[in-house]
Give the backbone structure.
Amino acid sequence: MPDPYFTAADLRFTTISECTAAELALLSLHVVTQYPRDGKKHPERSLEWLFSHGLPHLRTQDYNYQAPHQIYIAFDTSERIVDVAGVVPDDRGVAEQLGLFKTDPYYFGFLGGHRVHHDLRGRGIGTLMVQHRIERVQDFVNNMLRAPAAVYAFLTNEISARLLSQAQFENLGLKYIEDSEGEEYVYRRLIVPTA
């Protein structure tokens, strides 16, 4: 019998800036055990990125990481970290490189990649993380911005592509991404005020 899918009731979401010291220690363990050690993607670099982009006192970039620009963490009911992903203004300079600040008057940021726990992949956690981040942006658009916001994603993974298509993102095609030294699919979703 296949493992059951997760529902929103099975997960607790928080942001890295709201984590306790014990949760930050769990995050470090999650990154070291769940992130790949190939090419540029060393766990230590990933952990440095998460902390520098998610904790105000360690921030190394000149970004305004106020909600919903955050690093989001999902815990299951046993308080195990099951996914880590972000909403970031311009990670890796990709938005600037592609000219999104100039060509898209609604540019807001993009969804960073997931790190779903290896043992729990294919059970709906990634879908729930995408939904949670979109909901946070929607709340911000409705209550603070009161104007449309365009959210992007850059990826090569077919599973993530299906997930984004289901979440009403439009595939804008392949673009060369300098930092990746290759092409990635660019996805965009315009989030408009509903309240």
In short: Residues 8-191 form a domain with the Aminopeptidase fold (CATH 3.40.630.30).
